[in-house]
Amino acid sequence: MILAINTSALQFSLALLSESGALLAEHLATEKKGHFRNLMPALQFLLDSSAREIREVTCISVATGPGSFTGLRIGISLSKGLCQALGVPIVGVSTLEAMAIQVPYSDLPLVPILHSRKDEAFVARFVWDSERHLKRTCEDTWVKFDELPPLFRTPALFVGNDYPNQGTRLKDLLGRQAVLAPAHCWCLRASAVGTLALNRLLHGDLDDPSDLIPVYLRSPDIRPNPFAAV
User: Which of 61, 66, 70, 115 could bond 122 through an S-S bridge, CB–CB 3.0 to 4.6 Å?
Assistant: First the structure.
């Protein structure tokens, strides 16, 4: 059984998948400040409600970014701890690639997008090939939201993590070049993270827990504490 963890955006999610790829249980959180404190209770609820035990987990999968600086640190730290405690392998997965596979078999280039601080966007580009395999055509990168138009001169299918705001913004910036995936796809599910991890697990492509680090793409936005003693 695979435990998949996503804490790369405001909506965190957890999922349990069988080693055949079947979804056994999934939990998605709502957006609110400080909600990551509910991560461990959510994991226990997921196990209890599906009548599973943590010792049944045979692999840990986790979204490694890009995304929330705090969220990524929390998710990867939890994943490493469980990996070591259970003695099971770990697989890190690109947040944007996991988001992309939630929209299967598009004829258009597929662009996952995460809104960052300072009005920036993390983006990548993928295509589905003739054999229905998702192929990356652009590495994960970040750009100012208003600088997106020069990157998309032809239509592309977008999926993100904030449909009301990102969808409207993309339509305003790109017009008909921005085709929006259905609204229900605009929330990264841990089951997508687990699905990508399962494929790597079956091919023996595992990560070394000591080498697994968050993918930030840019320097953290850390401000001095104005209340710190001087």
Answer: 66
